[in-house]
Design brief:
By secondary structure, the chain is an alpha+beta fold. The chain is about 45% helix and about 25% strand. Strands 2-3-1-5-4-9-10-11 form an eight-stranded mixed β-sheet. Strands 6-7-8 form a three-stranded antiparallel β-sheet, covered by helices on one side. Helix 1 (about 1-50) packs antiparallel against helix 2.
């Protein structure tokens, strides 16, 4: 009974958020329409009676409108119905022990810094620390308009080349990490998860945490029996909170699984090659012997990896999304 009540409350909250988004969109376009109309009137006045000051004002407004329209055009490249949603981002260290785990933590920091720059809310909802340094895996929930539409560009294998800070000989190492990006389910009814299809195991949380987290079996592992999807969550202080977060991640994974199934069918119809497993790397980050970050899909590159690793990835995201429109 209580669970059903909270499901209804969450559904109502999501409906209100969606309504608010639609209102914001409508007001934005109405505002652009008003500004365009005013600019046309100003242009007619300048044409009828030239005025240097008004011409400068007209040029500035035309440039501002062009930028605003370009921004909206870019939003359209974000694509599918899921683009405006929040995103769940999972990062997994590849083979290579401490090196790969440190690289996974660097990516985690990069995405948290990016979210901060975009003024999105970001919360680490699950994290498994590495044995010596870094992380084995982490899941972040990024809350903000078009969080998923932007972050879907990060899905794939990321490759790092650098002089190892963990190698006494300071040799050059190559590390890999896998990034998964999932659209958050907006309501419980959207993805039906039958309780009978979910096996729940509880265990003691590992790594950092409060005394209560360490002593009690608060961590939760959910196994979705029909699909085989396994989700764990251990960062929250109570078993109930961890279960709720794990269910959100499970629903997001089920949505992503359905999207991948649709993409696979489309690729088969088009005759595209479809790779399984981790697939090919999408981006290389080279810190030695030269400095470069290159997206291997769009071809976009930069010679300043420090800025990229500090969260300045908008240019890479934009280049990928524009490239993907051409590919589609």
């Amino acid at each position: 009974m209580a669970s059903g009540f909270w499901d209804d409350v969450q559904y109502a909250q999501r409906v209100m958020r969606r309504l608010s988004t639609v209102r914001e969109d409508a007001e934005l376009w109405r505002g652009l329409e008003r500004r365009s109309s005013d600019a046309v009137e100003l242009a007619e006045m300048v044409d009828a009676e030239p005025n240097a000051e008004m011409e400068v004002e007209l040029v500035a407004e035309a440039e501002s409108l062009a930028q605003a329209l370009a921004d909206q055009e870019f939003q359209l490249t974000l694509g599918d119905d899921y683009a405006p949603r929040n995103a769940l981002v999972a990062i997994h260290a590849g083979a290579g022990g401490t090196e790969a785990q440190d690289w996974a933590e660097m990516l985690l920091r990069m995405y948290l810094r990016w979210a901060e720059r975009k003024r999105f809310a970001a919360e680490v909802v699950d994290l498994t620390p590495g044995e010596e340094a870094g992380i084995k895996s982490a899941t972040i929930e990024i809350t903000g308009r078009y969080a998923y539409g932007n972050m879907k560009s990060e899905r794939g294998v990321h490759r790092l080349v650098r002089l190892s800070p963990f190698d006494a000989d300071h040799g050059r190492h190559t590390s890999f990490a896998l990034v998964e990006v999932l659209p958050e389910a907006e309501d419980v009814a959207e993805v039906g998860v039958d309780a009978a299809d979910v096996k729940m195991d509880v265990f003691r949380a590992s790594g950092a945490g409060g005394q209560n987290v360490q002593k009690n079996s608060t961590a939760v592992r959910l196994t979705h029996l029909p699909s085989g999807i396994v989700v764990t969550c251990q960062n929250e202080r109570s078993q109930l909170q961890n279960r709720e977060v794990a269910l959100r991640i499970l629903r997001a994974r089920l949505i992503q699984m359905e999207l991948e199934k649709q993409q696979l069918e489309q690729a088969k119809l088009k005759g595209d090659h479809v790779s399984a497993g981790w697939g090919n790397q999408i981006r290389s980050y080279v810190l030695h012997p030269y400095k470069m970050v290159k997206d291997l899909r769009s071809g976009h590159e930069t010679s300043d990896p420090s800025k990229v690793l500090d969260g300045e990835i908008d240019d890479l995201i934009r280049a990928y999304l524009q490239w993907s429109v051409g590919e589609g």
